[in-house]
Design goal:
Number of strands: 5
Radius of gyration: 13 Å
Distance between the termini: 28 Å
Largest sheet: 5 strands, antiparallel
Number of domains: 1
Strand order of the largest sheet: 4-3-2-1-5
Strand content: 35-45%
Number of helices: 1
Helix content: 10-25%
Structural class: mainly beta
Length: 69
């Protein structure tokens, strides 16, 4: 038998398009900003990951819309 790990992905959209993504895997919720190769960090909950992504946008930016893919 082997274990199957299901990955889930949410894309964050701002007014001008994609600003980042959050991926769920065995480690937690990984945050990646658009245009960056390295991940911003891994967080224990989706809400914390969303807040982390939002905090790395320009000051005064609206919270992005997250859509699962």
């Amino acid at each position: 038998m082997s274990d199957t790990v299901t990955k889930r992905l949410w894309v964050a959209y701002g007014p001008a398009g994609v600003v980042g993504k959050i991926q769920r895997d065995a480690e937690g919720f990984s945050v990646h900003m658009a245009g960056k190769d390295e991940r911003l960090g891994v967080y224990p909950t989706m809400e914390i990951a969303k807040s982390a992504l939002h905090s790395h946008l320009k000051p005064g930016s609206d919270r992005p819309e997250f859509r699962e893919h």
